[in-house]
C-alpha cells in the first residue's frame, strides 16, 4: 500500500555522472517536459530534473543538474530519501538514472549513417544533436502504460496511472514538494486481481496488469536489457495483454533496445512523411530502417517521432 503522508527527505547523497558525448541535457529536459505519460510526475526548472523512483521498496527522489557542455557533458546528482542511503541503494539509483536518461548510448555511428546515407534526415539530426533517448523510468512502468492505453484515451490512461501510484506507490517531499514514485512490480504482484479490477473499473486491464506484474516481479532486469533481442521479445509476448506492438514499445522505450522498430504505425508514418515527403509508404519506411539504419533503426525512429521539437 502507498504511504498516506509524504515523508520529508532526511538523507542525501551526491555524486557526478559523465554521459557519453555528444549529450545535450537541454534536449532531455525539453522531452521530459512534454512527455505525456509522465505529466506532473517530475519538475524541470532551469537546468535541473527532479523525479522519484522506487528503489528496494522505498522512494528515492533524484535531482540531476547539468554542469558541462554538449561535447564535454557532466551531470551532478543528488539523491534524497527518508532513510539512510546505503551503498547498495545509491548504486541502484545511479544505475537507474543512467539507464533512464540513456547516458551511455553511443550516437556516433547513428550520426555517421545519417551523414553518409540520408541527406533528407540531416536537418533533423542537426536540430536534435546530442539528444539521448529518455526512456520510461522502468520497463515495468512502460509495460503497465502499454496496458493502460489499450483502447483508452490518453487522459483516461493518465487518471488510471495516478490511481495505481496513489494506491501502490510511495511519495517523498523535497523542498516542500511531493514526488510520487511508480510502484515496483512486486507491489502489484501482491495485489489481488479483483482489487486491481475494482481500482481500474476494468476487468480486462486489471487482469492484464496483474499478469504484467507477475512476469516482471520474477525476471532479472539485467537479462531484459542484455539478452538476445528475440528471446526478450518472446518473453514479453508470453505475457497476457502484451501484443506485438506493446512488446516492441517496451523493447525500445523501456529497455533501450534500439536495433529494430515496430511495424510502422500511423504516427510513425506521419512523422516520416513530414521529413521524406508524402510518398513514403510503410514498406519503404521498413526498408529504410532495415537496409540503411540497421542496429540504429530504433534511434532513427525515435528522432523521427521528435522531429518537430
Task: Describe this protein's structure.
The chain is built from 15 helices and 8 strands. It has helices at residues 25-34, 87-100, 108-117, 122-127, 139-148, 154-168, 185-189, 193-200, 203-217, 221-226, 229-237, 244-253, 266-276, 282-293, 297-305, and strands spanning 7-8, 11-17, 42-45, 48-55, 58-66, 75-81, 170-174, 177-181.
Q: What structural keywords apply?
A:
309 residues; alpha+beta; TATA-Binding Protein; 5-stranded antiparallel β-sheet; 3-stranded mixed β-sheet; 49% helix; disordered N terminus
Strand order in the sheet with the most strands = 2-6-5-4-3
The biggest sheet, with number of strands, parallel, antiparallel or mixed sense and barrel status, is: 5 strands, antiparallel
CATH topology description of the domain at 7-105: TATA-Binding Protein
The run of helices and strands is EEHEEEEHHHHHEEHHHHHHHHH
| Named CATH architecture of the domain at 7-105 | 2-Layer Sandwich
Question: What is the CATH superfamily classification of the domain at 7-105?
Answer: DNA-3-methyladenine glycosylase AlkA, N-terminal domain
Helix content: 40-55%
Amino acid at each position: 500500500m502507498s504511504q498516506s503522508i509524504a515523508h520529508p527527505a532526511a538523507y542525501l547523497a551526491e555524486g557526478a555522472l559523465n554521459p557519453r558525448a555528444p549529450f545535450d541535457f537541454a534536449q532531455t529536459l525539453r522531452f521530459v517536459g512534454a512527455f505525456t505519460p509522465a505529466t506532473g510526475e517530475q519538475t524541470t526548472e532551469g537546468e535541473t530534473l527532479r523525479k522519484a523512483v522506487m528503489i528496494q521498496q522505498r522512494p528515492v527522489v533524484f535531482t540531476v543538474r547539468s554542469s558541462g557542455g554538449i561535447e564535454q557533458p557532466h551531470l551532478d546528482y543528488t539523491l534524497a530519501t527518508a532513510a539512510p542511503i546505503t551503498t547498495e541503494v545509491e548504486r541502484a539509483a545511479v544505475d537507474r538514472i543512467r539507464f533512464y536518461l540513456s547516458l551511455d548510448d553511443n550516437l556516433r555511428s547513428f550520426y555517421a549513417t545519417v551523414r553518409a546515407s540520408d541527406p533528407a534526415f540531416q536537418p533533423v539530426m542537426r536540430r536534435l544533436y546530442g539528444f539521448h533517448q529518455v526512456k520510461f523510468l522502468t520497463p515495468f512502468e512502460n509495460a503497465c502504460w502499454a496496458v493502460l492505453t489499450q483502447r483508452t484515451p490518453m487522459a483516461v490512461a493518465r487518471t488510471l496511472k495516478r490511481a495505481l501510484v496513489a494506491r501502490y506507490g510511495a511519495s517523498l517531499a523535497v523542498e516542500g514538494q511531493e514526488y510520487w514514485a511508480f510502484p515496483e512490480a512486486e507491489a502489484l504482484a501482491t495485489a489481488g486481481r479483483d482489487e486491481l479490477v475494482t481500482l481500474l473499473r476494468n476487468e480486462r486491464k486489471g487482469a492484464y496488469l496483474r499478469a504484467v506484474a507477475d512476469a516482471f516481479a520474477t525476471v532479472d532486469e539485467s537479462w531484459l536489457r542484455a539478452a538476445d533481442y528475440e528471446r526478450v521479445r518472446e518473453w514479453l509476448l508470453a505475457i497476457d495483454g502484451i501484443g506485438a506492438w506493446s512488446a516492441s514499445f517496451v523493447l525500445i522505450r523501456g529497455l533501450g533496445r534500439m536495433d529494430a522498430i515496430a511495424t510502422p504505425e500511423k504516427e510513425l508514418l506521419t512523422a516520416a512523411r513530414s521529413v521524406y515527403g508524402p510518398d513514403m509508404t510503410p514498406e519503404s519506411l521498413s526498408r529504410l530502417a532495415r537496409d540503411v539504419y540497421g542496429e540504429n533503426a530504433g534511434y532513427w525512429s525515435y528522432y523521427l517521432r521528435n522531429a518537430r521539437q
